[in-house]
Design a protein that fits this description.
The protein has 322 residues and is an alpha/beta fold. The chain folds into two domains: 4-195, Rossmann fold; 220-321, Rossmann fold, CATH 3.40.50.40. Helix content is 30%, strand content 23%. It has helices at residues 4-7, 39-44, 69-83, 100-111, 133-146, 207-216, 235-243, 265-276, 308-321; strands spanning 10-16, 22-23, 32-33, 54-62, 91-94, 116-120, 151-156, 159-162, 167-168, 177-178, 186-189, 192-195, 222-227, 250-257, 280-285, 301-302. The strands form four sheets. It has an eight-stranded mixed sheet, with helices on both faces. A four-stranded parallel sheet has the order 13-14-15-16, sandwiched between helices. Strands 2-3 form a two-stranded antiparallel ribbon. The longest helix has 15 residues, at 69-83. The relative contact order is 0.11. Mean pLDDT is 94; it is low at 1-6. The chain binds aspartic acid.
Length: 322
């Protein structure tokens, strides 16, 4: 028999980031080291969480600029354990802001969770005079407790963003995330979640296969990101083709293209050579808003509205599953 408290046991997983950062001086919001304070101490510093049935686990302690497959696999492993526990309604994950959108996207693609997985972060270290982490954790827990649908979301500065749309758009301000044309899913006001549109994703059929291969992988299929810009040429692409190691061959290139998927003609020539050699080429836009609108003149496949960094992950996961 499950008791009422255990039925509401939330799990909070820590991975590091500025939210767990510490500076030598309390007034310093930028000169700190990320990933220093334990997630247990971060949670203990949030008065609103006192007395709630919580399980708190440190999965990693990294600056998220260094995020990669090993930490993602550790996260997926712990998330799978907890999400499969009927007494756990949702999981919160603390994370750095720099690659938060990439982790959110990977977790959504790989796990496609039926329960809420709520990622949160901070722009100021835990040692700041006015840290934003405690409020963000409190808001993330509110979202985890009130969300009616599953899926991975990001909570920061009182806003809830979808894994697909969210992007870090500011280097310093507390409200550093934006969902572009889609806008945020919801906001959190004094602990109450106010939704702007229905959210919560239905899992599709691909997840178990992707999940198995993702967990078994030593590395993800190699997909590189190149940018098209004024005065571009094909030298970066040709260098990639020339040095592709047999142990980890170049499988894909995502282009952060100009505007609506346009690419400098010199770079296009090199990309055509890559494609002729079996490398997948996908166009995303380097514009902060909008998508590559499909049209007959596009030289390569487009990213279905994904940003360059997410298109890179989507292609790597697709290649992993193929
Ligand atoms: N470099 C930090 C990180 O991503 C930045 C942050 O969390 O705001 O872990």
């Amino acid at each position: 028999m499950v008791d009422a408290n255990r039925a509401q046991r939330l799990v909070i997983l820590g991975t590091g980031g500025t939210i767990a950062g510490r500076a030598s001086q309390a007034g310093d919001n930028v000169g700190y080291v990320a990933g220093q304070v334990s997630v247990a101490d971060l949670v203990a510093a949030v008065p609103a969480l006192a007395g709630l049935p919580l399980t708190v686990e440190q999965v990693a302690q990294v600056d998220s600029k260094d995020m990669g497959l090993p930490v993602w696999q550790a996260l997926v492993r712990q998330l799978s354990v907890h999400l499969n526990d009927p007494t756990v309604p949702a999981v919160v994950v603390t994370h750095g802001t720099d690659t938060l959108e990439e982790t959110a996207f990977v977790l959504q693609q790989v796990l496609q969770p039926r329960k809420p997985v709520v990622l949160t972060c901070a722009m100021r270290p835990a040692s700041a005079l006015a840290p934003d982490g405690p409020q963000n954790i409190s808001d993330a827990v509110a979202v985890a407790r009130q969300a009616t649908g599953g899926g991975v979301v990001v909570v920061c500065a009182g806003q809830v963003h979808s894994a697909r749309d969210v992007a870090k758009v500011h280097t310093y301000q507390l409200n550093a995330f934006d969902s572009g044309d889609a806008g945020p899913l919801a906001c959190v006001e004094e602990g109450e979640v106010r939704s702007f549109r229905p959210w919560g994703t239905a899992p599709d059929q691909t997840s178990s296969d992707v999940l198995t291969r993702f967990m078994a992988a030593d590395v993800l299929p190699r997909v590189e990101l190149v940018t098209s810009h004024a005065d571009a040429d094909g030298s970066v692409v040709r260098a990639l083709l020339a040095q592709a190691a047999p142990s980890r061959p170049l499988r894909g290139i995502v282009v952060a293209a100009t505007g609506n998927g346009t690419v400098h003609q010199s770079l296009t020539e090199a990309l055509n050579e890559a494609r002729a050699g079996g490398v997948r080429v996908v166009l995303a836009s380097r514009c902060a808003r909008g998508r590559v609108v499909p049209h007959a003149g596009l030289a390569f496949d487009h990213s279905q509205g994904l940003s360059p960094v997410k298109a890179r992950l989507a292609l790597a996961l697709e290649l992993l599953a193929s």
